[in-house]
Design a protein that fits this description.
This protein has one domain: BFD-like [2Fe-2S]-binding domain (Arc Repressor Mutant, subunit A, Orthogonal Bundle). The chain has a two-stranded antiparallel ribbon with strand order 1-2. The protein is built from 5 helices and 2 strands. 42% of the residues lie in helices and 5% in strands. The radius of gyration is 16 Å and the shape is elongated. By secondary structure, it is mainly α. The longest helix is centred in the middle third of the chain and has 12 residues, at 48-59. Helix 1 packs across helix 3. Bound molecules: FE2/S2 (inorganic) cluster. Residues 7-10, 37-40, 42, 44, 46-47 line the site of FE2/S2 (inorganic) cluster.
């Protein structure tokens, strides 16, 4: 059976999201905490909108009316090498 992945970072499928919604998790923050959607390296840039669309389809709640989960810095992926670099210390 083919599996549609909605969150690549946390390996969450559409079926996982549907199961969670149908068991009572009906807002994005609840889904995020239950399934770890949006907690991967991309911080939800890929999956949050997909999950919001699935939630809209299943519950009738409009995406525009949903409270989007808080994104925590860094807003773009940063390598550990960049964070550990001594070059930034010398510049600053
Ligand atoms: S795809 Fe979901 S956190 Fe990156």
């Amino acid at each position: 059976m083919r599996r549609s992945i909605v969150c690549r970072c946390e390996d969450i499928s559409e079926e996982d999201v549907l199961k969670a919604i149908r068991s009572g998790y009906t807002d994005l923050e609840e889904l995020r905490k239950k399934l770890r959607i949006g907690m991967g390296p991309c911080q939800g840039r890929v999956c949050i909108q997909l999950v919001a669309k699935i939630l809209e389809r299943e519950t009738g709640k409009k995406v525009g009316a949903m409270k989007m989960p808080t994104v925590r810095p860094p807003l773009i992926p940063v390598s550990l090498g960049t964070l550990a670099s001594e070059d930034d210390e010398k510049q600053g």
